[in-house]
Amino acid sequence: MGSMKKSSVVLLLLLSLFLFSGHVVEVEGKWCEQPSGRFAGACFRNANCANVCSTEGFPSGICEGFSCMCRREC
């Protein structure tokens, strides 16, 4: 009976390792945002905002409300 209990524990540990070995958690970096200085009008499309932000030296831009916010990882 003792050997069966040990085998069950070992099997459970191996199964746990197998199940969780492929589980990867990605941690997203913190974004620093700044209102675009060149975007004119109301912001409706993220792509337009991102294009203007790229001319200001930012890798990304998104519409928040009706404002264009330029973003980069901090």
Automatic annotation (TrEMBL):
Keywords for the protein's UniProt record, in alphabetical order: Disulfide bond, Signal
Coiled-coil portions: none
Domain spans labelled Knottins-like: 31-74
Protein name stated in the entry: Knottins-like domain-containing protein
Signal peptide: 1-29
Gene3D superfamilies for this protein: Knottin, scorpion toxin-like (3.30.30.10)
Biological process (GO), any one: defense response
